[in-house]
Specification:
Protein name: LysR family transcriptional regulator
Distance between the termini: 56 Å
Family: Belongs to the LysR transcriptional regulatory family.
Radius of gyration: 23 Å
Organism: Nocardia halotolerans
CATH architecture of the largest domain: 3-Layer(aba) Sandwich
Structural class: alpha/beta
CATH class of the largest domain: Alpha Beta
Number of domains: 3
Largest sheet: 8 strands, mixed
Strand content: 15-25%
Helix content: 40-55%
Pfam family, one: LysR_substrate
Order of helices and strands: HHHHEEHEHEHEEEEHEHEEEHH
Number of strands: 12
Shape: globular
Domain HTH lysR-type: 15-68
């Protein structure tokens, strides 16, 4: 490396966190919030990087940003370095003060309005100096973030086979229909009875959609999905309006215009607490032990 290369590397090193956050978030405002800096400060850091390198790293896409080809190339080469440094700093700080630190915790879209905040509030009273970075996403997105070291722990339904998991309980899947639907007064239905019904479901990449397709196929029919949507509360609202039926876990806050009907067979999904293999801090271990100790509460989700 010649002298000019060395100067460039030293100039870029303090800016990589801003670049990494913006690349992951696809949005300067969210990246700035994640780093705890102003948007103008983050934008200046990105502009300084671009000036130093002599290339554009981001391009505007709608209300967010996307990496340019040069930006993607830089991100592929640097994201591992940024995360490795971040993990090293977190571990050193945690060893220096075991009652503080940061835990990056993920949980699925089917949980959150009641149970997760309640549990985290309990944990906060026991460890008020431990900071939590929370991510809510669908299963595969959570698994990928754990694999990459972007999350320390995640509650997943179901957990992936390739990551260390502690079983926490199970989640029952049931039929959801509008209160005005002919099946609303039933306590139990056979899945084959739904062959002529329109369904509202997640996209095919979601595990619940895979279960729907598999279970209906085993019952002798292919579900006729009229609406696909990722957001569960909106999905339930569409069902409540009588636009279709859905196979879902029970909502933590019951919907007044929905009826929940049991379906035949074993229709449960495993709930697991998943951790990565990137090195655990005492703060991570403390949250992990807390959640495992409360698996009885979790199994009631």
């Amino acid at each position: 490396m010649d002298e000019s290369d060395d100067v460039g590397a030293r100039a870029l090193a303090p800016l990589l966190a801003a670049f990494d956050a913006a690349a992951e978030e696809g949005h300067f405002t969210r990246a700035a919030q994640r780093l705890g800096v102003s948007q103008s400060s983050l934008s200046r850091r990105i502009k300084t990087m671009e000036h130093t390198l002599g290339v554009a790293l981001f391009q505007p896409i709608g209300r967010g940003v996307a990496l340019t080809p040069q930006g993607r190339d830089l991100y592929e080469h640097t994201r591992g370095l940024v995360r490795a440094l971040d993990d090293a700093v977190r571990r050193v700080r945690a060893d220096a003060d075991p009652d503080s630190g940061l835990v990056r915790f993920g949980f699925p879209l089917t949980l959150g309005p009641v149970s997760i905040p309640a549990l985290l509030a309990q944990f906060h009273t026991r460890a008020p100096r431990i900071r939590l970075h929370l991510v809510q996403a669908h299963g595969e997105a959570l698994a990928e973030q754990v694999r990459e070291g972007r999350l320390d722990l995640a509650v997943m339904i179901p957990p992936p086979a390739d990551l260390p998991t502690v079983a926490l309980g199970s989640q029952r899947i049931a039929l959801h229909v509008a209160r005005t639907h002919p099946l609303a007064g039933r306590t139990h239905v056979e899945l084959a009875e739904l062959a002529g019904e329109p369904f509202i479901a997640n996209p095919p990449s979601y595990q619940l959609r895979s279960l729907l397709d598999h279970w209906c196929g085993a019952a002798g029919f292919r579900p006729r999905v009229l609406f696909e949507i990722t957001e569960f509360e909106t999905l339930r609202a569409l069902v409540a309006l009588g636009l279709g039926v859905a196979l879902l876990p029970a909502a933590e806050t019951p919907h007044p215009d929905l009826a929940v009907v049991g379906i035949d067979g074993e229709r449960d999904r495993e709930i697991g607490l998943v951790s990565g293999d990137h090195g655990s801090t005492l703060a991570v271990a403390r949250l992990r032990d807390f959640l495992i100790a409360r698996r009885a509460e979790i199994s009631g989700w």
